[in-house]
Design a protein that fits this description.
metal ion binding; 4 helices; 4 iron, 4 sulfur cluster binding; Transcriptional regulator WhiB; DNA-binding; mainly alpha; 101 residues; 50% helix; transcription regulation
């Protein structure tokens, strides 16, 4: 399912949570990340944080430290949204091949 970038926030699992719960430090971040696990717009959320270099909070299931490390490993990426959506499509295609095969 493709969700337009401008619409993704309305489908976020965290939309009815206290926003301060996503901007925590240390081991509290693990609790914040749990909200993201089954979020239908996790990819779009993570791409938003990566593409816009958002420094604080848990976005798309990743902490600021994890996002910084990812950005350092992949400085060549110009659009995280495109990359992540492409990876999701490829993964869906692989799942479909396994079910059919």
């Amino acid at each position: 399912m493709y969700i337009e970038q401008s619409d993704w926030r309305v489908n976020a699992s965290c939309r009815e949570q206290d926003p301060d719960g996503l901007f925590v430090r240390g081991k509290e971040q693990r609790k914040a990340k749990v909200v993201c696990i089954a979020c239908p717009v996790r990819t779009e959320c993570l791409a938003e944080a990566l593409d816009n270099r958002i420094e604080f909070g848990v976005w798309g299931g990743m902490t600021e430290r994890e996002r910084r490390a990812l950005l350092r490993r992949r400085p060549d990426v110009t659009s995280w949204l495109e990359l992540l959506q492409s990876a999701r499509r490829d993964h869906s295609d692989e799942d479909e091949d396994v079910r059919v095969g």
